[in-house]
Design a protein that fits this description.
Number of helices: 7
Number of domains: 1
Subcellular location: Secreted, Extracellular space, Apoplast
Order of helices and strands: HHHHHHH
CATH class: Mainly Alpha
Structural class: mainly alpha
Distance between the termini: 65 Å
Keywords: Apoplast, Signal
Shape: globular
InterPro entries: Invertase/methylesterase_inhib (IPR035513), Pectinesterase_inhib_dom (IPR006501), PME_Inhibitor (IPR051955)
Number of strands: 0
CATH topology: Butyryl-CoA Dehydrogenase, subunit A, domain 3
Protein name: Pectinesterase inhibitor domain-containing protein
Radius of gyration: 24 Å
GO molecular function: pectinesterase inhibitor activity
Helix content: over 70%
Strand content: under 5%
Length: 201
């Protein structure tokens, strides 16, 4: 009787182990497919490596959904823009900053504030869109999403342009440019993924 119980227990444990392994394999295959979807989608962007690096960790949330991919790409852009805005605000106290540089930093700070606002508006609008929808309201909202995202890219460009000219060259410009360019690249990628989402409707 005891041996029969032990055998049953062993068989039950083996069954659980086999089931767990099968579930793990299925999950791995599903995640692999989701990751491949992101990789393929990122190939349509101007900065595919940055795109995949930023979004691949969200594969289980995206699940091959073009709208969700664009949504998370915008969320990443917003986070990057907020971080850059904070960084630029700290540069107003940069050691040895000239009056012209200070004005450029202040202007850049304003532009980054606008960038955050416009990307946030774009994300809110995008969240209302549904996969497969193609009515007039859909295209009106999608147009708003694109307009705000393009405007955000323009703000980023204006920030960088404010440091134009040889007189502005130096460490301060280099430090700010590095942060701002990362925002520009993330936002450019988000726009490409928004357009990819639109192309499927």
């Amino acid at each position: 009787m005891a041996r029969s119980f032990e055998l049953s227990l062993i068989l039950f444990v083996l069954y659980l182990s086999t089931a767990a392994i099968a579930m793990a394999r299925n999950l791995e295959e599903e995640l692999s497919g989701d990751t491949e979807f992101i990789k393929a989608s990122c190939e349509t962007t101007s900065y595919p490596d940055r795109c995949f690096q930023s979004l691949s960790s969200y594969a289980s949330e995206i699940k091959k959904q073009p709208r969700k991919l664009a949504e998370i790409a915008l969320a990443v852009s917003i986070a990057r823009a907020k971080s850059a805005k904070t960084y630029v605000s700290e540069m107003t106290e940069y050691k040895g900053i000239t009056k012209r540089q200070h004005e450029a930093v202040e202007e850049c700070l304003n532009e980054m504030g606008d960038t955050v606002d416009r990307l946030s508006n774009s994300l809110k609008e995008l969240k209302h869109l549904e996969e497969g929808d193609s009515g007039e309201d859909f295209w009106f909202s999608l147009s708003n999403v694109r307009t705000w995202t393009i405007a955000a890219l323009t703000d980023v460009t204006l920030c960088i342009d404010g440091f134009g000219g040889k007189a502005m060259n130096g460490e301060l410009k280099s430090l700010i440019r590095t942060r701002i360019m990362s925002v520009a690249e993330e936002t450019s990628n988000a726009l490409a993924l928004i357009n990819d989402f639109a192309s499927k409707h």
